[in-house]
Amino acid sequence: MSRETTTGAESVLPTADGLPENARRLAVFSLAIGVAMASLDTAIANVALPAIAEQLNTTPASSVWIINVYQLAMVATLLPFAALGEIICYRRVLLFGLLLFTIASLGCALAWSLPSLVTARLLQGVGASAVMGVNTAMLKAIYPTKMLGRGYGTNALVVAVAFAIGPTMSSLILSVASWPWLFAINVPLGLVAFFLGRKVLPATHRATHKFDGLTALYNVVAFSLLILLFGDAAHQANVTTLLLELVGAALFFALLLHRQADHKAPMLPIDLLRRPMFALSVVTSVCTFAAQGLAFVALPFYFFSTLGRSPVETGFLMTPWAVMVAIMAPIAGRLSDHYSPGALGGIGLAILAAGLLALVLMPDAPSTINISWRMAMCGVGFGFFQAPNLKGFMGSAPPQRAGSASGMVATSRLIGQSTGAALVAYCFMLSSEHGAIFALWAAAAFAGAASVASFGRVVAVRT
Fold first, then answer.
1. Where is the chain membrane-spanning (predicted)?
2. Residues 242/432, Cβ–Cβ less than 8 Å
3. Distance of CA 145 to the CA centre of its chain
4. Dihedrals φ, ψ of 111, to 5°?
């Protein structure tokens, strides 16, 4: 990789094989702030919805768009931003995302009506997408090759912990301040990440092909309709609406595939999906995050309604999962520098499946310790999966396609989580009394399937 001098705000440090240690720490700090904010804001507004709906004089059903539009914007634009990063440099896309996310967060804090808040959340989701779409590819430029597993472990730790503590942090902020502070807190953090990133984030090689705006449009519409389909199915929308969304999504995916059939670097990376290692990494990721989505939505209902625990107790019972993820993610990252990512991920996901089954098969009146060790077991398994899976994703793509691989990392995660959340709603539709149990059985099944897919990568590498 070429070397560039460090003169002015737009210059960067040499990136022959990662950054020097001091610059690397600062770059990782900048990147971690952006990733943490984007991950937190996926869930942080959920707890505040009732307060927001009341203050803005809107209905609970309408206020759900505050959540949906953020997720929709992220999923719809991840792959276009990843493709753009390959062309104009991941650093530029990341800095744009940080700046847009920060400005949009200020817009959310100052929102005076539901339309203004939804618009700001839409822009916030686009900014988060730019960050999440290229952050994994940026790690390859920040870390030396021999330390990539450690970098992926750090990234996995930030994403997992941010996602896990989002509701708790939201509750703490709301206990001392009003809901606009949920978004205002991002502004100083975003400015720190942006200005620090301008100084230390490295430049990357640029691809020679051009950005295809029509392909990006097809991608945005296709994934938007897919996420709307998941959400409407979960809320039992009428059959006509679901069919229209399904047909529309299928049509635009068909247009997308036709448009990029002969492209050397397709935006929806079908060239990478032809690689068994990459395809299995996608399957592993989607199934795992579907299991996580099912568990994280169903467990609070299970603890509160089925086991009769208070809301405060329910929050504490969720903690062992997050704590063990924080402990295991860096360990798994270091191990993935020396051992097969497929085997490490398969072992972790088998532990996750066993932990979820242990939760389902608990006695009728379990003690706090009985619940906690099962939740900790789930956290160990989930934490052991993430960094090796990132290593498998990025290691199975050529360097010039790192952006598309990075985009698929985030896309598969969000599709998995959306699938899990939609399936929880379906489980409760089947049985209001046993819906949480059905969802946990489904989560265990997804985790088991993910384990099989991950072990399949070991075979794929050998053949």
1. 26-53, 65-84, 93-114, 126-143, 155-175, 181-201, 213-231, 237-257, 278-303, 315-335, 342-361, 438-460
2. no
3. 24
4. -60, 140
